[in-house]
Amino acid sequence: MADLFASPDPDPDTGTESAPLADRLRPAQLGEVVGQDHLTGPEGAIGRMVAARKLSSMILWGPPGTGKTTIARLLADAVGLRFAAISAVFSGVADLKKMFAEARDHARIGQRTLLFVDEIHRFNRAQQDGFLPYVEDGTVTLVGATTENPSFELNAALLSRAQVLILHRLDAAALGQLLDRAEAIEGRPLPLTAEARDAMIASADGDGRFLLNQAETLYSVDLPEPLDPAGLGAFLQRRVAVYDKDREGHYNLISALHKSMRGSDPQASLYYLARMLTAGEEPLYVLRRIARFASEDIGLADPQALVQCLAAKHAYEFLGSPEGELAIAQACLYCATAPKSNAAYKAQKAAWKSARETGSLMPPQNILNAPTKLMKDIGYGKGYAYDHDVAEGFSGSNYWPAEMKAETFYRPTDRGFEKRIAERIAFWEGLKNAADD
């Protein structure tokens, strides 16, 4: 799949007027890429590599339409490498061999190659292994692009030879910049009210290529007057939510959904879920937020809440829209009606804070494994009480570093399943106190 601003150069004989809008807006240098300053800026990984003119192999991981192909092309120009591109969707072993052979030929005359591999996760494990010798000997500098988590989709051997750089979903400001550039190159504003412009930006869900395609559609017709959000939705055959001038509508609705679930109001929760999905919001984005809610606001008061959310994710991915949206509604209703607790959320915050403050302290020696004789000789594992051999399956041993006192991060509530957890902890505390006496 081609990426943002990554279509081929327009035919010089036909000029650029007929070229797609995304092509005409393609950046000419890295500084013009929007939304990825954390990578392309002077302090970013890519910015530093370009400044040093020393490029390492890398995997660009990010959502569609965020500029992966564009960055790869500009990287080759910035450091003087030959650019070669291949797509894992349309290519096989023979294509790879041809690419590597061409790269070797150019290397003999002193011209190194940046090999861009789009959708690199589509190559199987054996094909991915085929890159290794050419990356190691410098025949190619590999720049792979993927929308999938590299940890799961790419070989560990390949990952160890490449730096993973994460591209951000384009935010409203970056998408607004793209529309500003489109309006400048077209010499006229988009035929939209301010509210409709904000709504179109929000509905793009961070995808710059999608946004520019929508803008090009609008420029292709002669509209008598600017469209409002409802008119825009009708024109594009896509319902667009009404977002206000401050572009808060998107965040207002997700906040309303979250607060309604927290307040145990299933009716309002379902309403705000419907508002977002019928407005064209990305269903998996909403489900990600509901899954987060399941851990943050329900936690162990009902451990099945998170299970329901993950099951809804699988169901939606299997069924798609609109059928799979019922599973999202089910997860939303489950969370809204579940007992609530933020005890796990507060415990995580407190534990992380303590770990940052005391992170170098050694655990007590009795709970350390001793796989070597030397470690046994110096006391590792000595005196460890195996809890299963003790009455009640609880030894009451101390598991904290000697230099710090035991802390209490997790305080279960008396709601839902956490009430039973609280009873267990109290029981264990009683055994421990009895042993101390």
Detailed description of the structure:
Strand 2, helix 5 and strand 3 form a beta-alpha-beta unit. It contains 21 helices and 5 strands. Helix 14 packs antiparallel against helix 15, helix 14 packs parallel to helix 16 and helix 15 packs antiparallel against helix 18. With 437 residues, it is α/β, with parallel strands linked by helices. The protein has a 5-stranded parallel beta sheet.
- Rounded mean pLDDT is 87
Uncertain residue segments: 1-15, 243-248
Task: Report the count of strand segments.
Answer: 5
Which strand order do you get reading across the main beta sheet? 2-3-4-1-5
- Termini distance? 69 Å
Count up the helices.
21
Strand content: 5-15%
How do the SSEs run, as a string of H and E? HHHEHEHEHHEHHEHHHHHHHHHHHH
**Helix/strand structural class:** alpha/beta
Form type: flat
Task: Put the structure in a nutshell.
This protein has 437 residues and is of the alpha/beta class. Helices cover 50% and strands 6% of the residues. The chain has helices at residues 21-24, 37-40, 45-52, 68-79, 93-108, 125-129, 132-136, 150-153, 156-159, 172-186, 194-203, 208-219, 229-235, 249-262, 266-278, 283-298, 304-319, 325-337, 343-358, 373-377, 417-436, and strands spanning 58-61, 82-87, 113-118, 140-146, 163-166.
